[in-house]
Amino acid sequence: MSTATDSTVTGPTAVRRPAASSPNRVDARLHRGAGRWVVLALAGLFGLAMLSPFLLMLVNAFKSAADYSQNGPLSLPTEFYTQGLVNFWNRTDFPMKLLNSVLISGAVALLGTLLSLVTAYAIGIGRIKGRVWILAVFLVANMLPQEAIIYPLFTMANAVGLSNSQWSVIIIFTVIQSAFGIYLLSSVLTTFPVELLEAAALDGAGRFRILWSVVYPILRPTLGVLMVFFFIWTWNEFFIPLVMLTSNATQTVPIALASLQGDRLMDAPTINAGALVSLLPALVFFLIFQRTLTRGVTAGAVK
């Protein structure tokens, strides 16, 4: 007598019927699916909480001063009010401030990344003596508050004739931002494959040839991330540009935004409109280089 099995023999080979899913496996899949929905809901709530200040700024940017004082900041505007944008644009000479911020941030991003690359190349691959202590110095430099170094920086800028000059801010932030870049790239270059360097040296490549033909192509995603970070960090800087740039023709966007707030009077709609306009260039820059940032973060994750 034969017994029932999950397979039926019809010839030399057996055709196995798919076994029914066990209740434990079904429950496990349902549990994992429910867990994913919970995580997705929490991520959505967290994203909404992160976007709420920007949404509030957007609502109040197109609200009149009377509407703001009468209905508060959480209400929707009763009319589409654009005078706040016009006031900010005219009172701060925004095109000039925007050009100054773009020039300073772009120059710092390029020069800071270049300085980080060549210095980290000397420390990480050149294996100079005392590189651990040098990296410790760069790490400590990142921790210094700007209030502690602003007086000597201002004095040195006046001594070399860079008072109220955009180059003073560019040089200062190039050094400050590159301290982080040197620390990061040096840590990466200490684990750089020695075989590639030896092969390039056997082919007759010098140090600069190795840097631009071997090291740079591999570090290009990381350098792109540094450029994006340096640009946004410099764009948002306020204290050092406020001290170093004293004339209206050389000041940046954050200083222009701060000039709208007086001691006893605050035009909230104009400030919100100015904050919205000031945010757009950095947001556009981030969106343009988002793929560069993603490639740089994920570089090295897949061998």
Structure write-up:
The chain is mainly α. It has a domain at 93-259: MetI-like (MetI-like fold, Orthogonal Bundle), CATH 1.10.3720.10. 72% of the residues lie in helices and 2% in strands. The chain has helices spanning 23-61, 65-71, 83-92, 94-124, 131-143, 146-159, 166-189, 194-202, 207-235, 239-244, 253-258, 268-288, 290-298, and strands at residues 7-9, 14-16. A two-stranded antiparallel ribbon has the order 1-2. A hairpin with a 4-residue loop joins strand 1 and strand 2. The longest helix has 39 residues, at 23-61. The radius of gyration is 29 Å and the shape is globular. Mean pLDDT is 81; it is low at 1-15.
Compact overview of the structure:
The protein is an all-alpha fold. It has 13 helices and two strands. It is globular.
Secondary structure elements and pairings:
Blueprint: E1 7-9, E2 14-16, H1 23-61, H2 65-71, H3 83-92, H4 94-124, H5 131-143, H6 146-159, H7 166-189, H8 194-202, H9 207-235, H10 239-244, H11 253-258, H12 268-288, H13 290-298
Antiparallel strand pairs: 1-2
